[in-house]
Amino acid sequence: MSVKDRLYKDMKEAMKAREAGKLRLAVIRMARAAIKNREIELGHELSDDEVIGVLSKELKMRRDALPDYKNAGRLERVAELEDEIKILEEYLPQQMSKEEIIQIAGEVIASVGASSERDLGKVMGALMPKVKGRADGKMVNQIVRELLRSGQ
User: Would you identify the CATH topology of the domain 98-149?
Assistant: First the structure.
């Protein structure tokens, strides 16, 4: 079952659940709307990888907003965002561990012949397609920088 099909099925279940599924329903509807907007933008139906990319973007926006709401003392919105993040994560592939990212990054650094932080762009360009949707870009960037500094 594709991610889009799963979203549709879960949306119907959330609608049947009435009050209990309100946040879940809202998040699923938002995700489906973002997917539909992207399809209109590109002019074709999205593949599962493209759908995962849209959902990853939505997840990243929420994660990036969390510190701002925490600093502003809006704890109710923080809790709501955390719930939205949990719901979105259900539709994304299992996230990679830090160790897995370090291993793949080490292999890519060796394959492109990177030796310093100046080669960060080359490494990230080769690495991101391998971890897309399964790892946070900020964390990957940080790990690659650390590996390049340590001369891995």
Answer: Arc Repressor Mutant, subunit A (1.10.10)
